[in-house]
Structure formats: structure tokens, C-alpha cells
Structure prediction request, 639 residues.
Amino acid sequence: MKNSERRISRFILAAIVGGFLMLLAVGVSFLVVLRQTQVSAEWVAHTQEVAASLAELGAAIERSETARRGYLLSADERFANAFEQLAGEIETRMDAVDARITDNSDQQKRLAELRQLVATHLAYARDTLQNRRRARDDATAKMTFDRDDVDVIRRARAAAAEMLKAEEALLVERRARQFRNVQLSYVVLALSGLVFVALAAGTIWATRRNVHALATAGARLQLLNEDLESAVAERTTELQRANDEIQRFAYIVSHDLRSPLVNVMGFTSELEVATKPLTELIEKAREEAPDLVTEEVRLTIEEDLPEAIGFIRSSTQKMDRLINAILHLSRAGRRVLSPEKLDMNALVAGIADTLQHRLQELDAEIRIEPIPTLVTDRLAIEQIISNLVENSVKYLKPGRPGLIKVRGRQHSGRIIIEVEDNGRGIDPRDHERIFDLFRRSGSQDQPGEGIGLAHVRALAYRLGGTIECDSTLDEGATFRLSMPPELQKA
Amino acid sequence: MSSHQPVTIIMIEDDEGHARLIEKNIRRAGVNNPVLHFVEGTAAVEFLFNSPEGPTHNGPALVLLDLNLPDMSGTDILKRMKEETSPLRRTPVVVLTTTDDKMEIERCYDLGANVYITKPVEYESFAQAIRQLGLFISVIQVPEPEIEA
Prediction:
């Protein structure tokens, strides 16, 4: 991914997380505002309760006054009892108001004043009741209301009214606060709605963007895949052509090289034949005219000439073997493969049988473990395995009883065939080299041209397989052949 | 061998050394017939079909043919000689070449080659093969050509 792409994804992630955090904050503040609204509503209710208690207090005072007047007029003790009862009620009412205004010192001050006035008034009223009881039969008894009492009552009423007014003012103020809180909660609600909508829009945009990017990437990937396939097909054709070219080249070269070789070998032989009369001549000359035969002439004819001819001959013979090897390889490369189902156990057992004689001579043993069935070209796989087994037999370590194991297994869709020996091993430096044509490893004490493994590798490649070597010097070698279970017909 | 005229051995071989070795060994087998050597296909074809001394117009012949020639393929010469209408269709052709490719051998016999011999690289075998060929030449009968007017 490009740097800018990464930055954008990071930004989107941050924005979404931020959005959710904002939503959370808005939700919390909404709860706070709601709680405040509830509190102010409680306060409003409280104010109304205070006002109601004040009204009840006023009513009780009025009723006590009515009872007093009744007694003053009729001197009926029932009025006096009612008065006392109501006086008690007034006390209770005032306590109730007191209990409700503990939070408000102004109102408490006013209530204290009211209490005092009411107490004065009640004391006065009781005096008047006492006077009336004493003068039950005295018609002249003083029945008029005292001016002072009227003043007390007026002041008490004023105090009560003032309290009520204060409560009303509080009510107005608290209602206003409640209203503000409700408004605030609406604002917060609207805000959270806005945040939610923005968040939803952002998330949808980001998702759509991702989906679009995914689709684009998918399409590009498919295009690349198709490109790759055609590129592979093209490359395969090219390689096939190059391979065919090499095969043809190898064939022509090896073929054309043989022609001059026939001459070299032929005339070398002719030369050898020609030295025979020369040698005879020298012998004869030595007998008949020894002065003519110098040591130099004798050495030239009897030693230098045969030596030169010998080297020419052995070198050309080697060259012939090498050319034949190339020819053989190129011919194997051109052979048409015919895949068939092969019982590898039987095939390997057959190879082991052909080597039985040599194995007895060398005190060696071949152990064959089960090998999975393969569908491939019989001749090619036979050549591969017999080459490997023959190599194992050839390069056993003298003095150690030879043990050669051939085994097979299935591994991730391939058939692995291993030929393991406890022979002299191969230097790790040579593990790649030994598969090259004419290259050999270790001491050259065994006959061979360095062709076998090159042939094995060429055949393995043709069958769609690979071959590798795993070995430690002096401890033995394992050749691992990895084959497709089924050879595809070309 | 024909009693009237000695059979001419026409050797079409681009390699001078091979030609020399072949001739030497044929002679060693006791064959004394004249040997004519051509290094090029064109000259050989000209002689075979058109020369007044050539086999078409004069005397029986046996052809030793190499397949790898610089100017044409030996199989082309073989094909021309063995065609239905060719005056040389009965002339024996011995293909003597380095190729031992199975396909090539089959092709030559299909075209009408009488004998196919691969030149062994090993000189002992080579000399022996040519000497045996010489012995073979000394005993086979070669038809007289249908001399055209």
C-alpha cells in the first residue's frame, strides 16, 4: 500500500473513533441536562408545597378567629374547644412550613416574625375568651375587639402574604430555570442527532470508499493474473523453442564432430601401421650399418612416435565417448515420452536384481521400502533410478558394509523418491556441480565420464521432476527425486 | 561383377580424409574397380545423369553415398536416383554415413537405398566394415543401365 493510502485509512479510522467518542459525550451531557431538569422540577414542586402549607396556615388562623367570635357571641364552650383545637393546628401548620423552608433563611426570618405575631394574637384571643367566660352572665362585659389585636392580625396577614409572595417569586424563577433546562436538553438532543447523522454519513462514505477500493484492487489483480498467465505461456513457448534449439544444436554438433574424429583415428592407425616397417628398417640398419642409426633416430622411431600415437589415440577415444554422451543426451531429450501407471516397487526391485551379482561381491545390500505408484514414462524413470542406485553401488566406502535404501513418500502433491547410501559421500561444494555434464566429484578412482547424473537431471526435468543431493563427506549421500504423481502428456 | 564392363564405384563423400580411408580399405579387400570421388552433390549429380562417361550413358556403376554434403542432402540424390522414371533406379546405392539415427536409416530405406552402413568412429571397426563392404562389392551383380539413345 502506498504511504498516502495508509495515511488516509488512518485518518478514516481516527474520524470514526472520534465520532463515536463525540456521540458518547453528547449522550452523557444529555443525561446530565436531564438530571438537572428533573432537579429543577423537584424544586418547582417544593415551592408549590410551601405555598400550599402557607395557604393552609392562613385558613387555620381564619377558622380560629371564627371560633373565637362564636364563643364571644354565644359563650358556648364548644366554640372555645374548637378554638383551642385550631390553635394547636396552627402550631402544627407553622412547624410544617418551617420544615419546608429550612433551605431559605429569608423565609425563616419571616416565619419567625409570623410566629411571634400569631403567638401574640393567640394570647390576646385567649384573654378575650377568659374575659367572656368570667362575665358569662354579665351583659356589660367588654366584647369589643382591641385595636392592638387588629393591628397584630393585619401585620400577621401581611407577613404571610409576604412569604407567599416570596414563594411565588421563587416559583417564577424556578419555572424559568426548569424551562431553560428543558430547552437545553432539546439543544443537546438536536446536537446528538446531528453528530449521529454526521457519523453515519462518514461511516457509510468510508465503507463505500473501502468497497470501491476493494473492487478496483480485485479487478486490477484479475488483470494482472491474466497478464501473468499469458506471460507465462509466452515464456514457456520461448523456453520450449530455446530447448529445441539446444537439442538440435547438440545433435548437429556432436554429429559433425564425429566426422573429423573418424579421420583423426583412422590416420592415427595408418600412422601406427606405417611405423612397423620403419621399426623393421631401423633394426635392419643397426645390424648392417650401425653408423647410420644415431641414438636420436632410434629414440624418435622406437619411443617418441609410439608415445605420440598412444596419446592421440586415447584422447580421441575419450573425445568419442564424450561426443557419444552428448548425442545420447540429446537423443533422450527428443524421445517421445509415453506415460503409464507404474508399480514403482516392482520397478525398483527389478533394478536391484540386475545389480545382485555386484552387491554380493561388495558385501552390500539394497533395502527397498514402499514407494507410491507413479504415472510416468517407464524407460526414463528406470534410467533415473538405476543411475542413482548404480552410483550408490559404485561409490561405496571400502571397508564398510554397504547399505543402500530406496524409499518413497507423498509430500504436498509430489512423490518423493529417495536413494540413500552409506558410501563415501560428496563434498557439499560439489552438490550442484555433479549434475553438470562431464563434472565429477572426489577422487577419480572409478571409471566414468561424468555423464550419469547429468542424464538423470535432464530426464527428471523432462518428466516434470527435480533432483537434489544431500550428503556429508564420508557418511553417505541421499539423492532426492521429486516427481509429479502424474506426467502430463505434451 | 559384370563381364562386359568393370563396374565404376562412384563415391560421393565431402570429407577427403574419409574418402581416402574408404578407398584404401576397399583396395585392401582386393577390389580393383575404378573409384571416382566427388566432394560435392552438384558435381556428382551432373556426372550421374548427364556425363557421357557417367552411368546413365555409359557402363554400370555402384554409388557410395554420404548423407551430409555441403551443397545438398545425400537423401536428395538418393531420391532422384530411385525415382520411378530415373534411369538409375536399379543402380545399387550404399549409404555410408556417420548418422546412426533410427529415423534417418528408415527414411533412406524407404527412399530405396540398398544398403545403409554407419561409419564407426573406432578405426578398427571402420576398416573392418569397409573391407567387408569391399568383399560385398566384389561379389554382387550390378545390372547394366538402360542406355538411352
Summary: The interface with chain B takes residues 255-256, 258-263, 265-270, 317, 320, 331 of chain A (CB under 8 Å). Strands of chain A lie at 339-342, 364-368, 374-377, 402-411, 414-421, 466-472, 476-483.
